[in-house]
Amino acid sequence: MSPAAPRFALRLRPFAFAAALLCGAAHAAPVEAPAPDAPADAMEAPMQTVVVKGDNSAGYTARSSSSSAGLDLTLRETPQSISVVSRQQMDDFRMNSINDVLSNTTGVTVERIETDRTYYTARGFDIINFQYDGVGIPFVFGNVYGDLDTALYERIDIVRGSNGLMAGTGNPSATVNFIRKRPTANFQASASIAVGSWDRHRVDADVSGALNEARTVSGRLIAAYEDGDSYLDRYSPKRKLVSGILEAKLTPATTLSLGHTAQIGTAKGNIWGALPLYYKDLTPTDYPTGTNTAADWTRNRNEHQRTFVELVQRFDNGWRAQATLSRNTFKNRSKMLYVYGTPERATGLGLFAYPSRYDADNKQTLLDASATGKFALGGREHELTFGANWSKSTLDDVSHYGQGIGNPMPSLTGWNGHYAEPTFDASIDGSSYQDKRKGAFVAARFNLADPLKLITGVAYTKADSDGIQYGVSHYKSASKSTPYVGLTYDLAPNVTAYTSYTTIFNPQSETDVTGATLDPMKGKTAELGIKSDWFGGKLNASGAIFKTRQDNTAEQVGNNGTKAIYRGIDAESQGIELDVSGEVARGLQASAGFTVLSIEDPDGKTVKTYLPRRTFHASATYKVPTLPLTVGANANWQDDIYRNEADGAVIRQASYATFGLMARYDINKQLSIAANVNNLADKKYLTSLYWSQAYYAAPRNASVSLNWKY
Fold first, then answer.
1. CB crowding 246-263: b at 16 or more within 10 Å, else e
2. Where is the TonB-dependent receptor plug domain (predicted)?
3. How sure is the predictor about 150, in pLDDT bands with cuts at 50, 70 and 90?
4. Could you tell me if residue 434 is left (phi over 0), alpha (psi between -120 and 50 degrees) or otherwise beta?
5. What's the pLDDT tens digit per position in 685-696?
6. Phi, psi (5° rounding) for residue 433?
7. Pairing between β-strand 174-180 and β-strand 129-132 as defined by DSSP bridges
8. Mode of pairing for the β-strands spanning 641-644 and 108-111
9. In degrees to the nearest 10, what's the CA dihedral of 667, 673, 674, 675?
């Protein structure tokens, strides 16, 4: 409900709501143990610029986004599937980490393989493109270390499919764009204190305003601290976050911004590898929910530092130019115990120890420059954006393997974590390599007719790498131009049909049986859909059918001595996505999505069976009329998944649903108290089958928070 709207009984807008749903409904017609401390190939997302014009969110949606084509378009005008998770939705359901956000996003699965490492997938492929205000970051490990905090962001955009125009390298899955909170000229402040299950505590603070009398300099400071225990035995995570941004108007048309973010996450008892999922007789294991393979001496520390300088120049003719320089560093220091093997059902014995100490240092420098504006052609006004980018990323990591690798472990049933800490001097191995990217892009939105718009563009990327990764050359060099084309047609003032075709590629360093480096992976997405917006953009709805293909992805097929041999494989996914977000009725904010997916190889064989084929999510809050009370609920469902193991075992996770509740009482205009409950039905389920090992998700839990704003 907008701030000025009067409070009265819930009044549905039945025609608009039904039409919003129907616009989407019309379309409704690996098997090896992980090597957990060897990082995946460096995956790097080139840099592009997103125009950020403050908070344009409206409840559970946004009025516009630049995350798809670099042009500031409404969601309806964007010819690609895009979901928005707003600040309000994150606050209502206490989505304090990126895992929380993406678990509630249409078409995205969150693969929590361990307590401190996570993969993300969309449309059947890994998500390896993250951006901050449109500037891509090198995705070095192919997954995320730690639990990235969301206190910094006004909203998060998720663009599904290939996004080769804004991220020239990667997979045809999705691009996640984090839109930062920015300084405000008017003073504002907020703070929150929360306590929850397992003695969890969290404190948030956010203050923003002008720093001089002329109001030409403003700043924003954000801080968060979270610690406590866990439902997992011996696991105690802690997270500290501080972020500051200064913004100076050098002239009425020139703005300089400087920002820095530091996030440090530490954990005791962190899982490495997770639980065995079946016994030697091939029947499934069933441990208590809190079972943890970590020894009591295990530790993990992740430190993220991000700094950026941004210069924006506006011109009298409406054009806008921007340059951004970013410097990112990441450090990991950890001591871990990997438990491997297949236990006996009767005794639980048959597991073995693999202790290791791991250090990693990653440094990234990124430069991006772009310009956006309008031009006249053929008696009509059109839009144009173009730019160039460069990045360099270095990684140095080392594994110090501990004494006692292969020592028998006790049964995990009732295990207390007592295992003598070894010396980590059995052997060492690691990586030292450098990745470079440079590229350029241009895109235009042509106003062909009043209802018909064409968006077309191309991005060129050159990628080079050299160095060593765990004894194997990391050399790769490739360049490619990736086209983008999208067409929109307005069926009505608020209903638009669209189609788009986008591509992407990713260089590879793996070698085949002849020793030759594999050609780059190539991905492409074709999409057809319909979108609508209602109530002045407060509600957005979309439905899409898509077909996505990824060719020549490296898959290990054997070994030549200690050297792995790979081949390139192809896979194709297709499916349907329905998405609705925003104000459904006065006082009722909602976000919902449903996905149907199939993934096959060129022979028509089903692949990646660890990914769900059908997923559903929904979140809604309702502002009770005449009362200072907001209530809400959320739900997530996925169908069953499984893995076929080499020894004949089949690991399964049956379909499941989880539910949550929230309530917030406004004591006055500044103070409120809120309560949240997660996994209300106390459902027991595995977090992922991405690997052949996994652990159990959190059981029912709750938190209470006291919130203040000025």
1. bbbbeeeeebebebebeb
2. 75-174
3. very high
4. beta
5. 999 999 999 999
6. -150, 170
7. parallel
8. unpaired
9. -120
User: What whole-number distance in Å separates Cα of residue 51 and Cα of residue 134?
Assistant: 8
The domain ranges of the chain are: 64-709
**pTM for this model (two decimals):** 0.89
Q: Cα separation of 454 and 452, whole Å? A: 7
**The token pair that represents 3 in the structure block:** 């701030």
Q: Report the b/e string of 118-142 with b at 16+ CB within 10 A.
A: bbbbbbbbbbbbbbbbbbbbbbbbb
339 is written with which tokens? 């438990």
Bin 670: left if φ > 0, else alpha if -120 < ψ < 50, else beta: alpha
Report the C-alpha dihedral over residues 60, 62, 68, 73, rounded to 10 degrees.
150
- Do the strands 452-469 and 108-111 form a parallel or antiparallel pair, or are they unpaired? unpaired
How far is residue 377 from each of residues 382, 445, 447, 648, measured CA to CA in Å?
Answer: 7, 12, 9, 65
CB 276 within 8 A of CB 343: yes
Query: pLDDT per residue over 612-631, tens digit each?
Result: 999 999 999 999 999 999 99
CA distances from 643 to 85, 281, 606, 648, 689 (A): 31, 16, 12, 10, 7
Taking the mean position of all CA atoms in its chain, how far away is CA 436? 23
pLDDT tens across 487-501, in order? 999 999 999 999 999
Two structure tokens written together for 176: 């996640």
pLDDT of residue 15 exceeding 60, the answer is: no
pLDDT of 12 above 50: no
Greater pLDDT, 129 or 383? 383
- Supply the DSSP string of 505-554, one letter for each residue: EE----B-TTSPBPPPEEEEEEEEEEEEEETTTTEEEEEEEEEEEEEEEE
| Residue of 84, 96, 23 whose CA lies nearest to 57 | 84
> Distance between CA 129 and CA 172 in Å, rounded?
10
Distances (CA, A) of 414 to 234, 235, 236, 285: 13, 15, 19, 14
For residue 479, the surrounding DSSP H or E stretch is strand 476-492
Q: How many residues does the chain have?
A: 710
Short-list 63, 43, 45, 42, CA closest to 53: 63
Tokens of 535: 């109530």
Q: What are phi and psi of 24, to 5 degrees?
A: -90, -40
Fold classification of 64-709 is Maltoporin; Chain A (2.40.170)
Query: Where do we find the tokens 């995350």?
Result: 67
